[in-house]
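Model it.
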Amino acid sequence: MLNIRKITAVIACMACLVSCSEAEDFASDTESKNSVSQTISVGENGVTEIIAPAEDSEEYSLGDYRISESGIKLYYEEENIPTELMLTLERYFTSFQNRDFELYKTCLAADYVERYNKYLIENYSHDGEEYTLQNSFELQCDNIRNFMIEEILNTDEVPEDDTHTGDFKITRIRAEESELLEGETTDSLVEKYFDYLDGVFDMDYYNYISEQADGFKYFTFYVIAEGEDGEEHRIISAMDIVFAEKDGKYYTFG
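Modeled.
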């Protein structure tokens, strides 16, 4: 059954990053399935044409969307978020959904994969056991599943005796330009995003990547997925991310 109030309330709580009206709009309904109708054609760019929900449908307030080959509904404006970038974001989270480490690596900058894997081995291995990028990836998979369980149980902490797996199937992803506060620019937010990696790698990693990339994309995104209870839940809400662009392809860092 549809749980609009729950999803809307959760997203609205993230109003520090997006306006309440935008957050409330990104609710979801369980009537739509995570599959592409046979009457809908996916183009060579990997998505359908823009689909406008019927005015009397529960999806109407969510706005127009496209559907990818995997059946996920994608909400974005192409002039701000290129389709290839949106599909990369989809693959990134599909890797967590399917615990697909190889797919995950294709969404990351190659230099980051090598450099961060080395950092993890050197700093987090113990008792003769290496801690690698794959271990970090598995931890992220588990964390997202915990988010799903918390949503299903409507709690802030998963009970120790809980039997849910937290497995999920992504149904919707929304991406939009991040709201800038006074004095902020997209460039300054990108540079700030790299502060952690500058320290981890003991170098100006932002400048290093800038010299190789054609540009950066900084934006806010949401992920809605169906859980074990058959309902859609917010598992990621109003989070910011950076992708570097190189030759029309996009890569992230984490």
